[in-house]
Amino acid sequence: MSRTRILDGGMSRELLRLGAELKQPEWSALALINSPDIVREVHKEFIAAGSEVITTNSYALVPFHIGEDRFQKEGAALIRLAGRLAREAADSTTDRKVLVAGSLPPIFGSYEPQNFQPERVQGYLEVLVENLAPFVDIWLGETLSLIAEGEAVRQAVAGSGKSFWISFTLADDEADIESSEPKLRSGESVEDAASWAASSGAEAFLFNCSKPEVMREAVETAAETFRKMDAQIEIGVYANAFEGEQGASAANEGLHDTRDDLNDDAYSRFACSWAEAGATIIGGCCGIGAAHIHRLGKTLSR
Q1: At CA 142, angle to CA 158 and CA 250, rounded to 5?
Q2: How far apart are the first and last CA of the chain?
Q3: Which of 15, 190, 205, 285 is within CB 3.0–4.6 Å of 20 for a Cys-Cys bond?
Q4: Average pLDDT over every residue of 102-130
Q5: In the predicted model, is pLDDT for residue 1 greater than 50?
Q6: Peptide bond into 113 cis (omega under 30)
Q7: 14/294 Cα distance (integer angstroms)
Q8: pTM of the predicted model, to two decimals?
Q9: What is the pLDDT of residue 253?
Q10: What is the pLDDT of residue 156?
Q11: In a 10 Å sphere around its CB, with 0-12 CB exposed, 13-18 middle and 19+ buried, how is residue 55 labelled?
């Protein structure tokens, strides 16, 4: 088994745990507005738990969450703040180098592939890239539901001089868990997404914000696709802990409940399975906290 790089976990519930106020539709963006010190502290807790890569708290800094008016007036400053807080946390670490990944979210909503607007997407991504660039080591297009969203991220960061990772969210209802053919939430196949990634210049191809149960098949499919294409791309996973069907409501309409059965031990067992299948970058998404990351890091190191 190759050495695994450890990512951080989900930001929002750790913010809540430390006392930040979060409510929809702004969600984690509220912490940047009202309690930025808590954002920095969450980054530090993930680093203390063993994370080698932390992600900027810029996921909700899009009109879908904060509204068009606030994005135009305050978006650039909030994005810079998100980058600076992550950079400060990473640079305060003295025992090892911690990378900062600049989060580039789906501009028109999580799990909303039907809302993608190719003619408008670059205008918003440009604001994110320009204001995060001074602080980040790599770009992370995450929770993308269709290949066109990945291509938009590739185009947006092409002139930045920094490498990029692309992470797709997978269909994960009960029928999808039972299927042997993993697919994105758009219905596009993981094989097609991996083929696109192999020609995109991406340094890593990941799966995130889906149930742990659908991840191994996706990793195996990606690994086989890359093997056939002789493509040297890392594969990664950071699953969530959501209950029930996740695409039933828009991401800014409410708070998903999290699973009681997915404690740090259970999640670390999933992580070992993903590593066995070929994943070399592993962390957590929504509902996966610092305790999960600490446990999976210790387990994978053995």
Answers
A1: 130
A2: 10
A3: 15
A4: 97
A5: no
A6: no
A7: 14
A8: 0.95
A9: 57
A10: 98
A11: buried
The pLDDT-based confidence of 88 (bands split at 50, 70, 90) is very high
| DSSP assignment string, 248-285 | SS-TTS----B-SS--HHHHHHHHHHHHHHT--EEEE-
Mean of the per-residue pLDDT values for the chain?
94
Gyration radius of the chain over CA positions: 17
Q: Which two tokens stand for residue 128?
A: 């994110």
Annotated binding site for Zn(2+): 209, 285-286
Assign residue 297 a region (left: φ > 0; alpha: ψ between -120 and 50; beta: otherwise): alpha
Q: How many Å apart are CA 244 and CA 241, to the nearest integer?
A: 10
pLDDT of residue 247: 53
CA distance 158 to 105: 17
**105: closest CA among 134, 132, 86?**
132
Q: List Cβ neighbours of 39 (8 Å cut-off, separation of 6 or more).
A: 11, 15, 20, 31, 32, 57, 82, 85
Transcribe 209-232 into DSSP letters: SS-GGGHHHHHHHHHHHHHHHT--
At residue 182's C-alpha, the angle toward residues 185 and 291, to 5°, is: 80
Which position has the token pair 């135009």? 72
Q: What is the pLDDT of residue 180?
A: 78
Annotated binding site: 209, 285-286
